[in-house]
Design brief:
This protein is of the alpha/beta class. It contains 17 helices and 14 strands. Residues 317-483 form the Ppx/GppA phosphatase C-terminal domain.
Length: 499
C-alpha cells in the first residue's frame, strides 16, 4: 500500500498521485518521477458537483456527499492497481467553506487511506500557478485565472514565481445557483452576473493592472469549454473579449440548444453561462485583451511539488521568513524559542515530524502580535496567524499555528482543542505546553540557560531543572505561576532537580 503520510520528496522512478477535490469536479492524476521532470501517466475526472445544494451556511448536501464518496471509491481502485509510492489529496472551496465538512472528510480519509488537506484559497492559487508553470515556459509577467465551481483564483506572477495570489467567492456552480437557477438566459442576466464579478474584482483591480502582464492564461474545465467555443483559426483556444460578448449574445438568443454546444456534457453545459459571466467580468474589470487556455492546473501543481522540484517545506520557510520581515520579529530570540519548544516536544514518546515542524514555525512567529501592541500580544498573534495569507500551509495547519500563538501565555480559560485530522487533542496539549514553556524559558530574552529535560505523562510532564536554574529566582517564580495556570486545566507540571 502507498505511503499516505510521507512528506519527503519522491525519488526518481516513484509513481505518485494527486487528487483535487473541487467544488464541481474531482480530479485524479498519476505520474512517474523522472530525472528532470514528471511524466503524467493517467488522468481521471468526474463531475461530482460537491457544491450543489449547499445551504445558506455552506453545509454540504447529503446527495453531494454521497456522490463524492462514490467517486473516491472508484479513485481508490485506480490507486490500488498503480503501485503508488505517495499520494496527496487537496480539497478546495466547497470543503473549506462547509461547516459540516467532516461528514465528508472522515469517510473520504478511510476510503483513500490518506489525509485530506483542505487548503486556503491563496494556497490553491499558488499550486495552480505551479501547475501552469510546469506545463509552459513562463517568462515576463503572467496573469493566470482559474474558474472553479465555487471560487475563482487569480495569480499574477513573474516567470515561474507567483507575486499576487487571490481567491474570490465566485464560481460556475455558485453563480449558476445565484443568477441562472431556473435555466433562463438573457442579456440582462449575463450583465447582472458579470457586474457582480466585476464588483468582487474592484479591490484588487489596481494592484493587478499596475504590475501588468504580457500573457493571460486560463485553466480548468470552465475556461477550456469556453476556449473551445470561442477559439477560431488560426489561433484555436485564444479567447478575446469580443468572442465572449458574442457567445453571451448567442446564448441569450438561442439558449443551450445551439448545435455548436452538442459536444459538451449536460453537467458542463448547465454551468457554462455562469462561468462565461464570471470570465467576462474578469476581462472587463482587468482590461484583458486576450487569453490562452492551458491544460494544467491544481493537480499538476501538487504533482510537481510532490516530485521535489521545490520542497514543500521551503515554501513554508519562505512564508515564515516573509512574516518575520513584515512584523519586524527579533529572529534571534524567536529562533531560540522555536528550538527549545521543538526540543521539549521531541522528548515525548511519539513525536510527529510534521507537528515538530509546525511547532518550530509557531515558535518563530510567536511574537508577530508585537507589531500591533505589547498588551495582549498573544491574542494579536493568534488573530494575525488565523487571518494572514500563509502560502504552503493548509487550513488545519494554519488553524493550529493560530491556536498555539493565541494561547502561548497567560490564562487558558477560553482554550478548547480543535477538531483536526492533523493533531489529536492530546497532541495539541503537548505542543501548546512545549511552546508555553519555551516562551517562558526565554522570557526577557534569557538565552544563556540550557533547555530543560522533560518526561511526558498522559496529563502533563515532569520538568527536570539544571542546578544552574536554582540561581534564577525570576525563572523559578515564572515556572510556579505557570504550574498554577496549567493546573486550572488539569494539566500537571512537576518540577524536580536533575540528578
Amino acid at each position: 500500500m502507498y505511503d499516505t503520510m510521507n512528506n519527503q520528496a519522491a525519488r526518481i522512478g516513484d509513481t505518485i498521485a494527486a487528487i483535487d477535490l473541487g467544488s464541481n469536479s474531482f480530479h485524479l492524476a498519476i505520474a512517474r518521477v523522472l530525472e528532470n521532470r514528471v511524466q503524467i501517466l493517467h488522468r481521471v475526472k468526474q463531475r461530482v458537483q460537491l457544491a450543489e445544494g449547499m445551504d445558506d451556511e455552506g453545509n454540504l448536501a447529503e446527495a453531494a456527499i454521497a456522490r463524492g464518496l462514490a467517486c473516491l471509491t472508484q479513485f481508490a481502485q485506480h490507486l490500488q492497481t498503480s503501485q503508488i509510492s505517495q499520494i496527496r489529496v487537496v480539497a478546495t472551496y466547497a470543503l473549506r467553506r462547509a461547516p459540516n465538512r467532516n461528514r465528508f472528510v472522515k469517510p473520504a480519509r478511510k476510503i483513500l487511506n490518506s489525509r485530506i488537506d483542505v487548503i486556503p484559497g491563496t494556497e490553491e492559487a499558488r499550486l495552480i500557478y505551479r501547475g501552469v508553470a510546469q506545463a509552459r515556459q513562463l517568462e515576463n509577467h503572467n496573469l493566470v485565472i482559474d474558474i472553479g465551481g465555487g471560487s475563482t483564483e487569480l495569480v499574477l506572477g513573474q516567470g515561474p514565481t507567483p507575486i499576487l495570489l487571490e481567491s474570490l467567492d465566485m464560481g460556475c456552480v455558485s453563480y449558476q445557483d445565484r443568477f441562472f437557477a431556473d435555466g433562463k438566459l438573457s442579456a440582462k442576466r449575463f450583465d447582472k452576473a458579470s457586474l457582480a464579478a466585476q464588483q468582487q474584482l474592484e479591490l484588487l483591480q489596481e494592484r493587478y493592472t499596475q504590475l501588468g502582464w504580457q500573457h493571460a492564461i486560463g485553466c480548468s474545465g470552465t475556461i477550456k469549454a469556453i476556449a473551445q467555443l470561442c477559439g477560431e483559426p488560426p489561433l484555436p483556444g485564444l479567447i478575446t473579449q469580443d468572442a465572449l460578448e458574442s457567445l453571451c449574445q448567442r446564448l441569450s438568443e438561442h439558449g443551450l440548444s445551439d448545435p455548436r454546444f452538442a459536444h459538451l456534457s449536460d453537467s458542463r453545459l448547465r454551468v457554462l453561462p455562469a462561468g462565461l459571466a464570471v470570465l467576462l467580468g474578469c476581462f472587463r474589470a482587468l482590461g484583458i485583451d486576450n487569453m490562452q487556455f492551458c491544460d494544467a492546473a491544481l493537480r499538476e501543481g501538487v504533482i510537481v511539488e510532490m516530485s521535489g522540484e521545490q520542497p514543500h517545506d521551503s515554501v513554508c520557510a519562505t512564508t515564515v521568513a516573509a512574516m518575520e520581515r513584515l512584523h519586524h520579529i527579533d529572529t534571534t530570540h524567536a529562533s531560540q524559542v522555536a528550538q527549545t519548544a521543538v526540543s521539549l516536544y521531541q522528548q515525548s514518546s511519539q513525536p510527529n515530524d510534521e507537528l515538530s515542524a509546525l511547532l518550530g514555525w509557531a515558535g518563530r512567529l510567536h511574537e508577530v502580535g508585537l507589531s500591533l501592541n505589547f498588551k495582549g500580544m498573544h491574542r494579536h498573534t493568534g488573530y494575525i496567524l488565523a487571518h494572514s495569507n500563509l502560502p504552503g500551509f493548509t487550513i488545519e495547519q494554519q488553524q493550529l499555528l493560530a491556536l498555539l500563538g493565541r494561547f502561548q501565555r497567560k490564562r487558558l480559560d477560553d482554550f478548547a482543542p480543535l477538531e483536526l485530522e492533523l493533531a489529536s487533542a492530546q497532541q495539541q496539549q503537548q505542543l501548546l505546553m512545549a511552546l508555553r514553556l519555551a516562551v517562558l524559558w526565554h522570557l526577557g530574552r534569557r538565552h544563556t540557560l540550557p533547555p530543560p529535560r522533560v518526561t511526558w505523562h498522559s496529563d502533563g510532564l515532569t520538568l527536570e531543572l539544571n542546578p544552574s536554574v536554582q540561581t534564577e529566582p525570576l525563572l523559578l517564580a515564572d515556572l510556579q505561576q505557570e504550574q498554577q495556570l496549567l493546573a486550572a486545566r488539569s494539566w500537571q507540571v512537576k518540577i524536580v532537580a536533575s540528578t
